[in-house]
């Protein structure tokens, strides 16, 4: 046996034999003796870890104080008092006192004094009020080390004859000292008649001015979600109140909250929830707009009733503000705007406590500011437009805070939470904008250009004037004053008639243009139909001749040419077959619901050979969901829409001098619209003409002479294609507009057609 090991053995025996055992000495000797174990090795912990857990791990004063307040909540406290004594300079004292359940000697030793204690994991619900406990990692208590150099704990358990006092000098936990060798004095103290815990943090590391304390007060007020009283086996949970006091030179002053009652000026209240069965909903209530709305929202954008996978027991309540003098009283506008600079945003609460930095100024955890900057949705929806909170009841621990207590881990549950809140808020903002008759997306145009509405207004004015004249005649007034009034009314009547005549001429000219174009298109349709019929009559002979040539004994060059000819003929047959199907379907005037797959797939099959000949990439088809039925339509109408998009894409791709790529994506939007998005990688559409491309006779490719016509592009612009698309879509109360291009594409046009109703689908399979 090693001589040193023998010395340690003898020394340990001697210490243990003494009447008063020196436990620190026993621990040190035992640790040194264990180092002679050649078969095992053990972790040791440096006392400097305490500094890392407190001073470094807890980044901010606010976070440190909030952790200590949370301990009171976990202990079923109904009141927590914080007193700052002589804190204008470094070295002051902070006293945190609660009336919670307190701690026994065992709880102090096995709970408070044990790093990463599992007590809150093993007992996640408080005893008295069954509160969901906020902390689980067992390191939040080291916030006291972040705040001051010395800590005294006095704690009392109900119906106990005494309490306990524990004194800790954090400076004793220095580096290069084994953590287990640092001891702290504990002693019994007289009971005080009621339970609770008092933390006295002395020799504070920072100064706390009145402004700093007010800031902490505001922070603590924010992290404490207003408690909704609930009943359990023990009765009513009264919630928890937090009081702040400042005590300088024996003068005690309470710090009060100065909140603004601003929510009565909100444009709307938006509320949402995901229930215990993972089903999501959201609702809008607006007194100003006299508008209420509710809807399901699911994991899949196109399937509102699809349950979420990772989130439940989530709810939010948000007030939506538009800073418009028409919506907010002028005297309140500046007050609310100023208040919003510090208090707007959507805060996140987990098990009753605020999780930072979500909802802080500059934090965009829901990407609301980012979305507004993109301008894909025009109605404003920045963080400054919202005041509210999200509440998570996290019984299963799906949402975990980071070890620094600054945010949640970015796991699947958190991403799903962001998805739910962002989509429901944006959907609500869109619904509110629709109620206000506002433009939703760039490129969106009103269905009417306003002229017909203007004529109606003029006619109403004329009718009103005539009615007034009738009243005058019936009254028999013949005074000079009456005659003067009558002359003015007649003059006004003539002016209104003149305006109606002008508007009528404009409307008639437009109607004549449309009728003329319909006749042209009708004759073109007849010609195409006749052409298709004639071509089909020659198919059998051509196929027979090609078959004979393929079997003939020819040289390789001739065979290659015949093979190419056969390929081109197959392409022609595909085109003719597609047009024949479209024309035949259009002969039957009955409209029927169309599933987007039966629209898109035949179209892509018909252009496949042409795309290969042009050297394009294989087109992409994306279908988000099933049963994507539009309201009853003519099949030929979708053919017209898609061919117009395709011919425009070909011209754009040619101008861009790139390898063509086309993508067609279909799905169902949250407002029961079936959408189709047609994307290409051409030269794009300039922002300044996005709203004009659907106008009649507007084109970017028209040639003024035959010599300038580029036949290699196969088509030239007449300015009618997208106008026809607009008219088709509008006739079904749909919309067509330019949206932001997807990745790897430069242009995207979106068509929305109302979804088929249950009644529309009744006879679809008959």
From TrEMBL:
Gene Ontology molecular-function annotations: ATP binding; protein histidine kinase activity
Keyword set, alphabetical order: ATP-binding, Coiled coil, Kinase, Nucleotide-binding, Phosphoprotein, Transferase, Two-component regulatory system
Gene3D superfamilies the UniProt entry points to: Histidine kinase-like ATPase, C-terminal domain (3.30.565.10)
Keyword Phosphoprotein part of the UniProt annotation: yes
SUPFAM superfamilies cross-referenced by the UniProt entry: ATPase domain of HSP90 chaperone/DNA topoisomerase II/histidine kinase
Statement: the UniProt record of this protein carries the keyword Oxidoreductase: no
Top-level division of the source organism's lineage: Bacteria
Coiled coil: 483-510
Example GO biological process: phosphorelay signal transduction system
Catalytic reaction list: ATP + protein L-histidine = ADP + protein N-phospho-L-histidine
Domain Histidine kinase span(s) in chain numbering: 530-757
Enzyme Commission numbers on file: 2.7.13.3
The protein's name in its UniProt record: histidine kinase
Protein's organism: Segatella copri
